[in-house]
């Protein structure tokens, strides 16, 4: 999933970007408040990690601005400010969660995954559909209880479709959420990944809605 990281400290920002990428996130990194505000208004990120002490525009101002503009993506605030009134103010302005510096990378990743799941109406840790079980934390997939090996981009695409089960996603929407800045996108990349997923997980798992995009049906409710 593609996230925005807004952090002005070059060492911390570089470390978080590299670490989150290793844990399966596509990360765009900005270093000041105006850039964070601009990107959050313009790009369809799954979530944002927002430092409060940003130059040019404080993180609180960025948060207030994008919420007023109707941007509803989950925002996790990253801060050294541990005073309770500051945290209350951030939550009232629209923050979804807080992580205090120094940051534990795995906790940060877990909190991001939880925020994204809840934003998509997925309360459970594991995503399920038609015998397929996807574990976002372990980055593993099984079909009818048997492990299935997926390439990195195949896993990312499947996760996107399962998070958005019941909703048709266009190729453009999928590309926007799969690829960070500087990552080259082949013109038929999504189609190729869908073909491989169908071959590995069954032809009926992902439906093509002609002229619109791709659909993965919701898991039927159990009686």
Kindly, what is the distance between the CA atoms of the first and last residues, rounded to a whole number of angstroms?
32 Å
- SSE order, one letter for each helix or strand: EHEHEHEHEHEEEEHHHEE
Indicate the CATH architecture of the largest domain.
3-Layer(aba) Sandwich
Which percent range describes the beta-strand content? 15-25%
Which structural class best describes the helix and strand composition?
alpha/beta
Parts with pLDDT < 50 across at least 5 consecutive residues? none
| Largest β sheet strand count, sense and barrel closure | 5 strands, parallel
Total domain count: 2
CATH topology of the largest domain: Rossmann fold
The proportion of residues forming helix, as a percent range, comes to 40-55%
Name the CATH superfamily classification of the largest domain.
Response regulator
Question: How confident is the prediction overall: mean pLDDT?
Answer: 90
Rg over CA atoms: 18 Å
Question: In total, how many beta strands?
Answer: 11
Strand order of the largest sheet: 2-1-3-4-5
InterPro entries: CheY-like_superfamily, OmpR/PhoB-type_DNA-bd, Sig_transdc_resp-reg_receiver, WalR-like, WH-like_DNA-bd_sf
Subcellular location: Cytoplasm
Domain OmpR/PhoB-type: 124-218
Keywords: Cytoplasm, DNA-binding, Phosphoprotein, Transcription, Transcription regulation, Two-component regulatory system
């Amino acid at each position: 999933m593609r996230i925005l990281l807004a952090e002005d400290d070059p060492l911390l920002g570089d470390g978080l970007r590299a670490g989150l990428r290793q844990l399966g996130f596509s990360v765009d990194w900005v270093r000041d408040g105006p850039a964070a505000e601009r990107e959050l208004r313009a790009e369809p990120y799954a979530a944002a990690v927002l430092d409060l002490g940003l130059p040019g525009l404080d993180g609180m101002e960025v948060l207030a601005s994008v919420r007023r503009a109707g941007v509803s993506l989950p925002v996790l605030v990253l801060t050294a400010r541990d005073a309770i009134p500051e945290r209350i103010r951030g939550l009232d302005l629209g923050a979804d969660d807080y992580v205090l510096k120094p940051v534990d990378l795995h906790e940060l990743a877990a909190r991001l995954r939880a925020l994204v799941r809840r934003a998509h109406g997925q309360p459970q840790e594991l995503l399920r559909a038609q015998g397929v079980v996807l574990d976002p934390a372990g980055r593993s997939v099984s079909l009818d209880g048997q492990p299935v090996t997926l390439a990195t981009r195949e896993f990312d695409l499947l996760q996107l479709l399962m998070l958005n089960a019941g909703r048709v996603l266009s190729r453009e929407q999928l590309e926007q959420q799969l690829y960070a800045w500087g990552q080259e996108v082949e013109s038929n990349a999504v189609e190729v990944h869908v073909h491989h997923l169908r071959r590995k997980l069954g032809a009926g798992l992902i439906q093509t809605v002609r002229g619109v995009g791709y659909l993965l049906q919701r898991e039927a409710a159990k009686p």
